[in-house]
Amino acid sequence: MNLHRRHLLSGLGLLVAGWSLHPGLALAGVRRDSRVLMGTRVDMVVPDAPDAASAIEAAWAEMQRQERLMSRYRSESLVSALHRQAGRGSVQAPPELLAVLRQAAALSERTRGDFDISVGAYDGWSFDPAQPRRPSAQELLEERRLVNHRDVRIEGDRVRLARPGMRIDLGGVAKLPVLQAGMQVLEHHGIRHAMINGGGDVLTRGQLHGQDWRVGLRDPRAPEKLLGVVTLRDGCVASSGDYERSFRQAGRRYHHVLDPRTGWPTEGVRGVVLVARDTAAVNGIGAAAMVGGPARGLDLMASLPGVDSLLVDTAGEVHTRGRMAQRLQAA
């Protein structure tokens, strides 16, 4: 879940908060850069070195290239091409997109449809606080016909959407692979210590000034506060929450994580955090847990070997799995 937007320093090193580093934060020997990718702010932090600037630029270039493949909001993306060809034909997909689509398909089967990228068909929602929009019940009923993950067909290196009007949304499964691609570029350029953080997901390598990276976890019950802090060297923190993109209308709050079966925002779970060494182990799990609800979400999280996780339900209870209770430190 997103980190609090202040920055806290302690004797153990840097506490990343707000999933972004404060623009005014100045640490000797640290180079940072921030840009907007996939509709969210992404921050990159590395110890300063002669080749750090060129490595950072190369990492941004690769992440931007992959974003252009997978963004549903870019008319030139392959995802947009898929939408235009829905029910008509297939699109040849590069390995990066195929890998994400296969991960999505496997997770959809594993969660019995709790995770479903064809949820993109519910495009009547707007979570822009300046122009919020809630679709009518009739709109959702009509769009529901187009939601079925099995109708996203992968045939060799080609992909097609089986029915006209289908749309996919890779927001829940593409971000971590894109951030991972940026980290791999940094490593290829000899950068052994780095953090990339964007929209609730954090990847780390090595340390900062000899100290493990510290990642603060935002409390979905009170987003201005922190639940606690985890330290991380080589690994990732992935999160989902109901508080970041939302609006209130007629006394009710609506958020952007939609239930594929209804098109309405999920209920029962406020936020999920997963800590793992490998991004593939947790990719898409947070969204699936929010759709499935507390019981199914906790069962899913408990089935993940080597993953420490946390779920906050709508009753305000905090549930942990794995070693999360032991590794969560006070902020």
Automatic annotation (TrEMBL):
Domain of life per record: Bacteria
Pfam families, alphabetized: ApbE
Entry EC number(s): 2.7.1.180
Gene3D superfamilies hit by this protein: ApbE-like domains
Reactions catalysed according to its record: L-threonyl-[protein] + FAD = FMN-L-threonyl-[protein] + AMP + H(+)
Cofactor note: Magnesium. Can also use manganese.
Known cofactor(s): Mg(2+); Mn(2+)
Entry's transmembrane regions: none
Annotated InterPro entries: ApbE, ApbE-like_sf, TAT_signal
A GO term, aspect molecular function: metal ion binding
Residues the record lists as binding Mg(2+): G172
SUPFAM superfamilies hit by this protein: ApbE-like
Keywords of the record: FAD, Flavoprotein, Lipoprotein, Magnesium, Metal-binding, Transferase
Class in the EC hierarchy, top level: transferase
Family per record: Belongs to the ApbE family.
Protein name, as recorded: FAD:protein FMN transferase
Protein's organism: Hydrogenophaga pseudoflava (Pseudomonas carboxydoflava)
Chain's gene name: apbE2
